[in-house]
Amino acid sequence: MRKAYQNYSAVLFLAAALVASSCTSGKSRQEGDGSKDSAQTRQASTLTIKGSDTMVILAQNWAEAFMKANPGKVVQVSGGGSGTGLAALINGTADLANASRPIKDKEREQLRKRRNAEAQEFRVALDSLAVYVPASNKIESLTTPQLKSIFRGQTTNWKDVGGEDKPIVLYSRENSSGTYAYFKEHVLEDEDFAATAQTLPGTAAVINAVSKDAGGIGYGGIAYAEGVRTVKVAPAGGQPVEPTMQNATSGKYPLSRFLNIYSAGEPSGIAKEYLDFVLSDDGQKIVEGVGYYPLPKEATPAAQ
Amino acid sequence: MTEQVLEGGERTRVAKTERRTGVRRRGAKSSLAGSFHTPLWHRVAERMIAILALAAVLAIALIFIFIAREAVPMFWEADFAEEVNIRDLFFAKEWRGYDEPVFIWQPVGEPAKFNVVPLFIGSLKVTLLAMLMSVPLGVGCAIFIALYAPRAVREVVKPVIELLAGIPSVVLGFFALMVLASWAQATFGFHFRLNAIVAAMGLALTIVPVVFTISEDAIQSVPGTLTEAALALGARKYQVALRVVLPAAIPGIAAGIVLGFGRAIGETMIVLMASGNAAIMELFDFSTSVRTVTATIAAELGEVAQGDPHWRVLFLLGVMLFAVTFVLNLLGDLFIQRLQKRLTAS
Q1: pTM for the whole thing?
Q2: B304 at the A interface (CB within 8 A)?
Q3: B88-120, pLDDT tens digit by residue?
Q4: What are A233's strand-pairing partners?
Q5: How far is A180 from chain B (nearest CA, A)?
Q6: CB-based contact A263:A124 (threshold 8 Å)
Q7: Rounded distance between C-alpha atoms, residue A200 and residue A213, angstroms
Q8: Helices A2-40 and B151-164 sit at what angle, rounded to 10 degrees?
Q9: How far apart are the C-alpha atoms of B95 and A182, rounded to whole Å?
Q10: Which tens digits make up the pLDDT trace of B301-344?
């Protein structure tokens, strides 16, 4: 009797394990196949877009509106980071890449080598990179040199930058993130983040963590800034500036940047239709709805 | 057992008596298989099972070859040598902008710094801690369920613990990230909200059922005659448990621990979500954030272009992780075999 029961439970256990493993592998396979399909057979009605986590909500909204306006056409959007999107563009598993940072020369060259195509850049929106602290932190503003020193790990207490006596806890993004790359380039001047910076997947995760951590500081897209305070940022030797639309478009805010879409070669077919839609007035209205800033009027036809 | 007229039934009964008495029946042939006619489909089935078993071995070998093939070109590729010095993967170096030699993992930047040491330290720290939490818990639970618990309790608790093994790790990671981390920080006042301890707690939830299930089976399969003999000699129940049953079940328990270890070091989702992923070079402080090998591969492999130095290093991490688990499993197996030999020889 007991033996039989044991066998039975072993079989059950095995079955559960099998189901669990087949579930996970099945899911990833599906995803893999999906993206490969669309790139290789290049169905005329499906567009695969991959890239920046900062842009993923924006891109999903664009995709929805675009699909509503063009029945029968499918746009698939996924995140993963700007580097992920550009790598997918290079490897041929995506048609367009969302990137919150400019493409690197190395990536341009890889694209040339792998797909024999020139990377085309389209500026599609404007974003201010906000610096977040928890709502309980009363600090008003930080200068970019202070930010650099904080994220390099050289300033470790809030009292050194005019706050309370409390150790600073750093929150950063995964290194595949465009936001990470932008921050590293513009604030850290290409030096390394402190090893103690916790890296989290996605701006939403950073905001969630900062809001729960009294000593925390993080950075991310302006559209996500809910539940935390954004700090004014002063350029070296300048006045503190708030990350508002005006300051971003005028270029006063030191951490504003363009959000880009990249294609391999001149876009055609559905990719071109999508890009036209994104740059149209309707498309730019969506940008505002999501919380980023539409392109300044004169910069709209900004294909490089 | 009901009377069986089949040849097979006769055979099992012979084997059973032999096992039970430890003495071969006089006249029984040394090779029983030869004395019966085996139906064709039995032989076919046996072959098929053998092939399936070999397929598993083959699959493992192929997986290893695949990841090694992506990593190994780093030793001769000019592209790789241009960007990365292989020595810097394992040893500290004084990089520009640092005032002492450091072990750091900063794969994006100029120059990219790929030092695998902090990642392996991270993996080992989390694994060790998770094992420290889950082995006493799992084994203790197994002893209680197998030897002490009343039948009703056993029939509820055992399936529930085994069910724990079926919870997707992403759910456990989520739980660790949102609930355990806040609780731990509020209670212990950690500087890092997400740290090795929180990740290990999440991880322990997946390892406990592994250790428990196998240990419990091992304890159950200790022959009842041993317990009865000990009791008959006047031993107390706890003496029987600690001095008779547990030693006899040790090889099985050790097997459970080895399996749990493999699960812990290979687990990705929980550590990715709950460990903070900061590659800090810190050996002894378990309240710091850690970045494990598995989380690094999961977080970064999607980003890199194929054939890039970063790509090769990530595959090297895979190869090294494979090797570490393989060697540790092997050592565990050898240890278990020695234990078994010692226990059965006397």
Answers
A1: 0.71
A2: yes
A3: 888 888 887 777 888 888 887 777 888 899 999
A4: A142, A241
A5: 10
A6: no
A7: 14
A8: 20
A9: 22
A10: 876 777 788 889 999 999 999 999 999 889 988 988 888 887 77
